[in-house]
Amino acid sequence: MGTVAILLRQAVGIALSPVAWLLAGLALALVLVWRGRLRGARWLLAGLFAGLLAISLVPLGHPMLAAREAQHPANPVLDQIDGIILLGGAERPAVSARWNRPELNEAADRVIAVATLARRFPGVPVLVTGGHSAPPTPSEAAISAAILRDLGLDPARLILEQRARNTAENARLGLARVQPAPGARWILVTSAGHMPRALAEFRAAGWPAPIPYPVDYRSTGWADATGWHPYRNMGQLHAALHEIVGQLAAHLTD
Prior knowledge:
This protein is 55% helix and 9% strand. By secondary structure, the chain is α/β, with parallel strands linked by helices. The chain has a five-stranded parallel β-sheet, sandwiched between helices. α8 packs across α9. α9 links the parallel β4 (186-191) and β5 (211-215).
């Protein structure tokens, strides 16, 4: 994928962030005050406050995220497989470089699930894909691979792809790295909310029927989602919009 397409996806993702909406509204309110349009600034600030209050009280992103997470079954039935794919995104490259130890974020379930699957299916190769960082900062793949080795996974089973900058490149560069045989059964491990987009990208790249293995669920029951949870509500809304826009952008740019 070209750099222009990647920048376009990132720009759209930033534009749809609730925090970006708030900052843009505040900037516009300042412009109105500077130009002496105080009435318009007051109405805009009132609208921003109402919107922020609505996002804080109402879990707007919950149904969107929950719907995406429910598209593929949790704990799928598995028999014979030929390999395991771990998508990057659970790593913290800058923190890992700062403290000289592999560090993970809230999506660490991805790495835990792959370690569990690797024990369940001994001998199968494990593709770890994810780049982003430039030396001396480690790549996403290098961080997860280090943790998997510490958990006892044989390094000979690990296949690292360290150039991918997004999900589409995870699929395309990972395919070139592994070159699976026709009909090979590879398990695809990523966050449940990310799985619909990831599976579409891997199928488009030519992977032979990857098996979705979703982890890192974020949604709860509706009763548990209601209440005063401003940070969680904003995070879920941002995550849902990010995945929806990312999948739409994939259709448009690929």
